[in-house]
Amino acid sequence: MTRQPWRVAVVGGGIAGLAAAVRLRDSAPAGTEITVYEQSGALGGKLRTGELAGQPVELGAESFLMRDPTGAESAAVALARRLGLAEKIMHPTVGQAALVVDGGLRPIPGGTLVGVPGDLDRVAAVARPAADADTDGGRPLVGPDADVSVGALVRSRFGDEVVERLVDPMLGGVYAGRADDLSLVTTMPALARAARVEHTLVGAVRAAQAAAPRAPGAPVFGTLAGGLSTLVEAAVTASGATVRRDAAVRELTATGTGWRLTVGPTRDPELVDVDAVVLAVPARPAARLLAGPAPTVAAGVGALDYASVALVTMALPQPRLPELSGFLVPSTEGLLIKAATFFTTKWGHLRRPDGLAVVRASVGRYGEEAHLQRPDADLAATVHRELSAVLGTPLPAPVDGHVQRWGGALPQYAPGHADRLAAARTALRAAHPTLALAGAGYDGVGIPVCVRSGETAAEEIITALGGSAR
What we know:
By secondary structure, the chain is of the alpha+beta class. The protein is about 30% helix and about 25% strand.
């Protein structure tokens, strides 16, 4: 029997929403109408490729993990393959990064899990672990249903220096947050699982690493030749969705057969009826849309806070750069920049015969948003000065530059986030099975996680509408 086509709205045109649209198209009945509503004029969310000094440059996310926590190919790689982009995947040619310690660069030690060491001797050149604190107390580090901050766990076992010089800058580079505030379960799920079994933190790190072995020499990260916006464009094409840019969804109302969206300005709203909705927007706008149909869920979702960052990219003529992919900066160093990437060193396919180098620095830590109020020129000048100081040599004046500000970009997952989200989703499925949440605000940051989040939301919608998710 031929299935009747559906009408599905995807609210949010970031990679989570677009991945949901592709999965819907792959499994929905023929003739299904998928419409993506994006409040801004640009699709892709934090995936945005621009141009600097005549070549593509990432103005947001730079790369994706090649493998998921089980060792299988990541959802980002699978999506690239589905979209015919597998041959465009490129890998770093320089993988070694550094930490700024006492004003100078020291190589990031190997054998850590997001900075948490599995061998204390290997990190001694960067941080001195507390002596004999990681003892076997006869019980697992973390209770079966408990969540703690990463900082609290690591400080209690390895001391302050390991947190401040290793774990904090590693987590700060990803989340712009602090280890003392971030959930172990959400930001380091593999370590959290191991900590529920192991009695020492060294043992938990080693168990987590053993659970997801990596073949020697296998690349950890990938990007796409031509930039990550090619993933966005290919997803739009494959989804066959109607894309509505500059289309703010202001209200979501449950109807007897689905949902009514109120789109556009208050004075001249457009009302759109659909069978189902994937809500792929950050937590606060999601909470506003959920306030009517699911106020309890809205309260839980809307509690999530975010950090803002700025990315300062410069094209430098023949600078003297170390053979590093970049470096991370502990907050204790007192610098504005928290991380830097040497794009044209790290990615061989971006190197230029004229020696022009592209360097990007990340500015902004959670709770320090006041620093981002500086004008673009001031931010760029400060970054240039701090980079020169860290490298120990004056950098040449940039021939081109760009400051990209991402307001409210990075979720700050407090301990208990996973449980709060699970409760919200359980309530939402029970009351409104044709409404699903997707995106970094719920499931974690990183392109693979966002892709999988969107695909999972699409599969829930397909099931709720009586289809068969593949």
